[in-house]
């Protein structure tokens, strides 16, 4: 044994070949934490000192190669100064990765599974790379608001060319073996069982002089092979395109291109200095803090979900959905697509046809895009069992009720269904507004009843709210969470209240919108301001997409549940739209009118008639700046998020922010409502809310700060860890 540690070992094989194996003890995956980096440094020195070593293969003893850097550690490192971050990144490159790359013997990486971020960068410092047909590689750092920091922006363009490297790094996408081989990122692709053999063969060819590993290595040490005109065309065109794709709120992709452009004429060591500066600059931004927080929040959400699903009896082998419309068809599609057979029941054949049509349409799109074979499509459809009766319901583990949003109808359906299922089966309602405790009155086993709120469209929206009523058992929550996970969704467990979590927080946002329109703000101007802020669509457009009728109904539920702040004494713009049969995209007219574009998708156009319809309910002519519009819209939403945390509707601030990002598209780079308060400063947020409350008139309840939040502001507290210092 040449070297033995807790993350890395190096042993001598035949013919003077050494195997450096990553196998981080106590973890299911390999990652670059401080321990692994230090051991790589020591292992490299041990190899360098051993005169018997003629070549090195780099392997993994895990199902993955290396998933990347340990984000919990490097995120904490971002608290240092910009200069210290840059110096630290450069030191890691110089003393660890460069040292391995500069070994006096040939090196070959055997990529057996996922190699992302630092994992791919480790492979890039090797002279050659062999990739399993089961592996994926990529540099996803821009998705976290940063750029590759272990030499990715330096080595990748020198190996695969500037254009390919720009696409890989700016997009952050994972690359499959065929794309990796075609681009030159890897030198061979083999079946998993031949991986080590392939790596040994390559390194032996280097030892025998059949392959010139020194020439191969030299490519990564020298400036990029582009003349001035080629470089300008490649980088400048890419910057413009990527800036348009990423938008103004995500600087990392363009920063990565700028770093590669500046380093193009430099040798490796100078280029790495530019990379370190780029990493450090981005590390001090709130965007990076929030995107890293989003990544960690997603991990926390997944961990909680797995803990629920690991409970005894949580496994779901078969499901059922009641109501086969668009929503029911979407649920059936998602369940079948991810491998859980599902009965789709309706009272009418027309409903069954609509549900099957929805599933077929979604699957056909996958086939058209080459993401699925016709055979697999047929297999998925076979997992959807259409039915006009309760036949087979005694075999299901979870039944999701997705009938019309009417308490009386749901009561009748739930009571009838409960008699058809096993005593241990879960009965869940896909209600978006109706109290789970109220619906539970219809069933004899309320401990087996909960809410399972999907967001529309089901196949696109990741979030599922699992709503527990007063009598819902842990076993029921566990099985429902397990089913959501099996469907590829991100479940958040919440307690019952009007609107549950996401819709409750969203309701004051719409209330603020209606208040702004009443005071004279143009709804198209509000939409533009909120889209500029980062929302995928403004409140008027969102209302049209959700459905004005749905919004009015939800508003009535919320007004009854929270009359102090959500029961509006004036006639709202939503009510005007509803009374004039303007329901949004579903009937082609709402705040906007809708035409069909070339791809058959609805396209919004401004309809001058809407201003005429709204004129009677507009009693002001105030002019608002974009900043005022954002404040007036966001403060009520954020305050409701605070109340949900204080009321125990969600278990943590992380759950709330993740639910908003995954459920309604809260701008990810802003981190969620509670992160938004933190980034503004709790004291400053409270002061702003107080200021707007004085001008809010009958909407003052939306801007009223809670006593606990005021106390937090006085004590200088935050919801999350401190933001990075400049």
Average the pLDDT over all residues and give the rounded result. 95
* Individual helix count: 31
- Number of strand segments: 19
Q: Main β-sheet: number of strands, strand sense, barrel status? A: 8 strands, mixed
What's the overall geometry?
A: globular
Poorly predicted runs are none
Strand proportion: 5-15%
Strand order, sheet with most strands = 12-11-10-13-14-15-16-17
- How far apart are the first and last residues' alpha carbons, in Å? 46 Å
**Category by helix and strand content:** alpha/beta
**Radius of gyration over alpha carbons?**
28 Å
Topology:
Layout: E1 3-4, E2 8-12, E3 17-22, H1 34-49, E4 55-60, H2 71-77, H3 82-101, E5 107-111, E6 115-116, H4 118-125, E7 128-132, E8 137-138, H5 152-160, H6 162-171, H7 177-183, E9 188-190, H8 195-207, H9 213-221, H10 228-246, H11 252-263, H12 268-283, H13 286-309, E10 319-322, H14 326-337, E11 342-345, H15 349-368, H16 374-382, E12 384-387, E13 398-401, H17 407-418, E14 426-429, H18 436-439, E15 449-454, E16 463-468, H19 474-486, E17 490-495, H20 502-518, H21 523-533, H22 539-546, H23 548-561, H24 563-566, H25 573-579, E18 592-596, E19 602-606, H26 608-614, H27 626-646, H28 653-664, H29 673-680, H30 682-695, H31 707-715
Parallel strand pairs: 3-4, 4-5, 5-7, 6-8, 7-9, 10-11, 10-13, 11-12, 13-14, 14-15, 16-17
Antiparallel strand pairs: 1-2, 2-3, 15-16, 18-19
Helix pairs in contact: 1-3, 3-12, 5-6, 6-10, 6-11, 10-11, 11-12, 13-19, 14-15, 15-16, 20-27, 21-27, 23-25, 27-29, 27-30, 29-30, 30-31
């Amino acid at each position: 044994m040449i070297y033995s540690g807790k993350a890395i070992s190096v042993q001598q094989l035949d013919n003077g070949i050494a195997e450096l194996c990553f196998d981080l003890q106590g973890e299911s995956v390999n990652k670059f934490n401080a321990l692994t980096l230090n051991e790589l440094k020591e292992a490299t020195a041990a190899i360098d000192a051993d005169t018997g070593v003629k070549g090195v293969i780099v392997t993994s003893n895990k199902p993955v190669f290396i998933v990347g850097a340990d984000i919990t550690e490097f995120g904490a490192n971002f608290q240092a100064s910009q200069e210290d971050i840059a110096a630290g990144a450069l030191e890691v490159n110089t003393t660890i990765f460069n040292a391995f790359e500069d070994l006096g013997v040939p090196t070959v990486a055997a990529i057996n599974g996922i190699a992302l971020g630092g994992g791919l960068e480790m492979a890039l410092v090797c002279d050659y790379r062999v990739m399993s047909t089961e592996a994926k590689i990529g540099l996803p750092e821009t998705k976290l608001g940063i750029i590759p920091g272990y030499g990715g922006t330096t080595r990748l363009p020198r190996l695969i060319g500037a254009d390919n490297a720009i696409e890989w790094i700016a997009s952050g996408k994972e690359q499959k073996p065929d794309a990796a081989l075609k681009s030159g990122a890897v030198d061979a692709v083999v079946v998993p069982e031949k991986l080590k053999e392939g790596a040994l063969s390559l390194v032996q060819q280097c030892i025998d002089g059949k392959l010139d590993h020194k020439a191969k290595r030299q490519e990564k040490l020298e400036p990029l092979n582009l003349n001035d005109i080629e470089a300008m065309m490649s980088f400048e065109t890419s910057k413009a395109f990527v800036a348009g794709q990423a938008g103004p709120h995500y600087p990392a992709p363009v920063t990565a291109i700028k770093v590669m452009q500046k380093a193009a004429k430099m040798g490796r060591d100078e280029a790495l200095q530019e990379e370190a500066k780029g990493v450090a600059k981005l590390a001090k931004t709130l965007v990076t803090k929030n995107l890293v927080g989003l990544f960690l929040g997603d991990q926390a959400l997944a961990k909680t979900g797995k803990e629920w699903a690991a409970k005894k009896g949580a496994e779901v082998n078969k499901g059922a959905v009641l109501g086969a419309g668009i929503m029911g068809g979407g649920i059936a599609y998602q369940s079948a697509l991810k491998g859980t057979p599902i009965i789709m029941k309706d009272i009418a054949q027309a409903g069954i046809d609509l549900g099957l049509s929805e599933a077929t349409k979604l699957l056909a799109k996958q086939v058209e895009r080459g993401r699925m074979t016709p055979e697999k499509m047929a297999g998925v459809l076979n997992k959807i069992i259409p039915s006009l009766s309760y036949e087979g319901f005694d075999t299901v583990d979870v039944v999701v009720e997705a009938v019309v949003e009417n308490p009386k109808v749901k009561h009748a359906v739930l009571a009838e269904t409960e008699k058809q299922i096993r005593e241990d089966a879960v009965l869940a309602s896909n209600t978006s507004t109706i109290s789970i405790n109220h619906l539970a009155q219809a069933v004899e086993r309320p401990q087996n009843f909960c809410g399972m709120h999907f967001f529309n469209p089901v196949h696109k929206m990741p979030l599922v709210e699992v709503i527990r009523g007063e009598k819902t058992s842990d076993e029921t929550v566990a099985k429902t969470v397990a089913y959501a996970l099996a469907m590829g969704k991100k479940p958040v467990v919440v307690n019952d209240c009007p609107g549950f979590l996401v819709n409750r927080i969203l309701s004051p946002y719409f209330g603020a919108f209606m208040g702004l329109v009443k005071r004279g703000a143009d709804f198209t101007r509000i939409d533009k301001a909120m889209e500029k802020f980062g929302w995928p669509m403004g409140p008027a457009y969102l209302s049209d997409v959700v459905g004005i009728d749905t919004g009015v109904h939800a508003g009535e539920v919320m007004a009854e549940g929270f009359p102090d702040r959500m029961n509006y004494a004036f006639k709202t713009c939503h009510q005007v739209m509803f009374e004039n049969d303007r329901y949004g995209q579903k009937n082609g007219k709402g705040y906007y009118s809708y035409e069909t574009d070339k791809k058959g998708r609805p396209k919004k156009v401004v309809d001058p008639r809407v201003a005429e319809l709204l004129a009677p309910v507009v009693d002001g002519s105030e002019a608002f700046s974009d900043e005022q519009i954002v404040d007036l819209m966001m403060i009520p939403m954020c305050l409701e998020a605070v109340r949900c945390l204080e009321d125990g509707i969600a278990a943590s601030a992380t759950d709330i922010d993740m639910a908003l990002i995954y459920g309604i598209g809260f701008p990810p780079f802003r981190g969620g409502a509670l992160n938004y308060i933190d980034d503004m400063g709790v004291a400053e947020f409270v002061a702003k809310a107080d200021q707007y409350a004085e001008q809010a008139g009958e909407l003052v309840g939306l801007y009223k700060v809670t006593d606990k939040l005021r106390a937090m502001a006085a004590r200088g507290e935050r919801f999350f860890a401190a933001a990075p210092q400049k």
